[in-house]
Amino acid sequence: MQAIKEVGLKKAFKFFIFSFYQLFYRLLPLPQLIETYLLLGGAKIGSESIIMDVRFFNWHHLGLRGLKIGKQCFIGDETLIDLYNRVSLEDSVTISQRVIILTHINVGYRNHPLRRYFPSKDLPVIIKSGSAVGAGSIILPGIVIGERSMVGAGSVVTKNVPPKTLVVGAPAKVIRKLN
Predict the structure, then answer these.
(1) What sign results for the dihedral spanned by CA atoms 141, 150, 126, 37?
(2) CB-based contacts of 21, cutoff 8 Å, min separation 6
(3) What are phi and psi for residue 97, nearest 5 degrees?
(4) Torsion over CA of 98, 99, 101 and 107, rounded to 10 degrees?
(5) Backbone angles phi, psi at 151, to 5 degrees
(6) Rg (CA), the chain
(7) Nearest to 83 by CA among 69, 71, 95
(8) What percent of the chain has pLDDT over 90?
(9) In whole angstroms, what is the distance from residue 67 CA to residue 85 CA?
């Protein structure tokens, strides 16, 4: 009941509706069906992109209209994408398996004691063309990964990644520039 008081009846209803939309999404067996379903929901997806068994959450905020995937992109199995704010993958982006893309941070209800130190925030994530994110990496809210950059497997990206750069680690650090 506290959740409804905090977000309001309209947002609670929207959450309920999108929960059903998400339930049907989880039943789709093939990438082609997944793509069609996402397009019907308002996502923008370029040609020749492949979306495997990707899980989305916070559908009830921007919905699928906040999701933009360019041409010839690949998103691997068990990737988690937060739709609280916009997520934009430009052309030829590869997201490996089990990557987490976050667009918001929230420690809990308004009266949570940590809200004072860690206020809620939501920011878009943009991954520029020709980039790749290695398996098991985490991309935090507001991050821009520059063109033709590589995020090594298991990295936690806390700062923007410059173009043509390899970053690795937790937190991710620049290893080298790419030619």
Answers:
(1) negative
(2) 41, 59
(3) -65, 145
(4) 60
(5) -105, 120
(6) 17
(7) 69
(8) 77
(9) 9
β-strand pairing of 74-75 with 50-51:
parallel
pLDDT digits (tens, 9 = 90+) for 134-178: 999 999 999 999 999 999 999 999 999 999 999 999 999 999 999
Cβ(136)–Cβ(99) below 8 Å: yes
Domain that holds residue 145: 2-177
* Alpha carbon distance 33, 115 (integer Å): 40
- Tell me which amino acid residue 53 is: D
Under 8 Å between Cβ of 65 and 59: no
- In this model, does residue 97 exceed pLDDT 90? yes
Q: Over the stretch 33-58, which tens digit does the pLDDT of each residue have? A: 999 999 999 999 999 999 999 999 99
Closest C-alpha to 84, from 165, 176, 7: 7
**Helices and strands (DSSP H and E) totals, the chain:** 3, 19
Domain count for the chain: 1
Q: Which amino acid is at 176?
A: R
pTM summary value = 0.92
> The domain that contains 123 carries what CATH number?
2.160.10.10
